[in-house]
Amino acid sequence: MAHDPGHIELHDPETDPLATYVLEPDDVRPLLRRVVSSPGAGTTTSHAPFTGSPIAAIPLSTPDDVARAAKNARAAQRLWAARPLRDRTAVLSRVHDLVLERQSDVLDLIQLESGKARVSAFEEVCDIALVARHYASRAGRYLAPRRVPGLLPGLTSVRVLRHPVGVVGIVAPWNFPLTLTLGDVLPALVAGNAVLLRPDPQTSLTSLWAAELLEEAGLPDGLLQVVVGDGPTVGAAVVQHVDHVSFTGSTRTGRVVAAQAGERLVPATLELGGKNPMYVAEDVDVEVAAEGAVRACFVGAGQVCVSIERIYVHEDVADEFTAAFVRRTREVRLGSGLDYRSDMGSLTSAAQLATVVEHVEDAIGHGATVLAGGVHRTDLGPWFYEPTILTDVPAEARLGREETFGPVVSLYRVASDDEAVAAMNDSDLGLNASIWTADTRRGAAIAARVRAGTVNVNEGYAATWGSVAAPQGGVGASGIGSRHGREGLWETTRVQTVAVQRGAHGVLGGPGVGLHRLFDLGTDTWPRVYTEVLRTMKRLRLP
Ligand code: NAD
């Protein structure tokens, strides 16, 4: 059929060959109007991974549009920051309710744009509800002025304040269209900032839907500006106009963005790639660990920054675990239905498929063995690839060290916890890790030795990611800074120290006791007096 932009038909060959899902042009047009662009703007066409068919022609922003969006955001931010915090948290609280209420709309959109299974899309809805609720209830505490000990106890009163930075720029990838946009927009807004958001062009409709949701939740005009365009032009323009950059993407692009932000001396939070390991200890129930591994490796077709790509299994259970893992992997249901009947969807793009195929072929060329999968499923859609397990992957294979970002995992045997920890830490990347053991105390102790921003014991990734009160971020080449929790909120604030020196103008009609008095003691006396003061303070165990 000829495709009207914004009209797509999706067939679900697995469940019903005649099933048709349609995204009506009228649903899409109001969303497209939210892009900051100029009359006569060019367009970019996104394609549905399930079919390869065009979804919508989305207007493109130019660097001038980005500058205009930033200016408008800046004007709106001043008023927003002056509003009481409860007005800001009220918006988040309503977002929580609305995203749960409207979930079926956004689940469809996320699936259409990313090609993921509905169950993975639902994780994004849950994430937004968790983040919105958390910051709605905790932002006040996180942003409250903090009293700290002053220079002269009793005389110097010090408070540390947190102010919004101004305009936060968010440059997001395509793999979590809702989580990695709205999930970062919410804390930035509640801190009193405006946001300039550049979603990936492949998944911008979901972001535009989120902008609509925020408006309905009561967000004043102008505070969220959405621009669309490629990374090197529009993404880079965002970096040029904001006071803080939140970038999520590959380590390679993260270095470019960090350099651009560094040039402007604006801070950047960088959430980058991973080559995340899992360790399966010898005391596990192998069926439980295998089930956990399937989800941890193949969620979102492995296009999840925190998903697992390397598994180290204790040799005592290696055969048993491998058999269970392979069996369960072969049972994973692939499909393109906009329902909960499939476990795994498609890869999101031809480029992503090409990387997966290249990594698997390169590993096989280096002597690796395929235990499950390794098949491009053109019968299901253009970019479906079976969940794949490899073993005997040598160190020279690209798959051994580089992030694949697909449904591919390699298995290795280890003889001890020490060997497992050494192997897990043998990477420049350090985003997420997972440990499976029946002894949770042992698991926690191993976890603390792993060089990764998050470590899950008896879970793949959801326990840390979903515990939104705790920071989530990588170490080493996996990034700088974090999202979630107090730390995540603080990323988009600047600190200010205000010290009030008491008694400068006299105490009870007597002489002043301000710092100037100390300096007034004369060049000989004040060093002697202050030396005694310092000694006394230590004796009194003052902080
Ligand atoms: P990518 O780095 O190629 O692109 C990410 C985004 O950056 C894209 O939208 C791209 O258009 C944009 N971009 C490209 N050049 C740019 C530039 N010069 N300035 C500004 N923006 C630019 O990554 P990708 O392949 O699209 O995304 C997958 C990667 O993201 C994986 O490495 C994955 O691990 C990582 N990721 C990390 C997290 C995390 O929280 N740590 C979460 C999701 C994805």
TrEMBL record:
Residue ranges of domain Aldehyde dehydrogenase in the record: 42-498
EC id: 1.2.1.79
Superkingdom field: Bacteria
Keywords, alphabetical: NADP, Oxidoreductase
Enzyme class: oxidoreductase
UniProt xrefs under InterPro entries: Ald_DH/histidinol_DH, Ald_DH_C, Ald_DH_CS_GLU, Ald_DH_N, Aldehyde_DH_dom
Keyword Oxidoreductase in record: yes
Pfam families assigned: Aldedh (PF00171)
Protein's UniProt name: succinate-semialdehyde dehydrogenase (NADP(+))
Annotated organism of origin: Cellulomonas xylanilytica
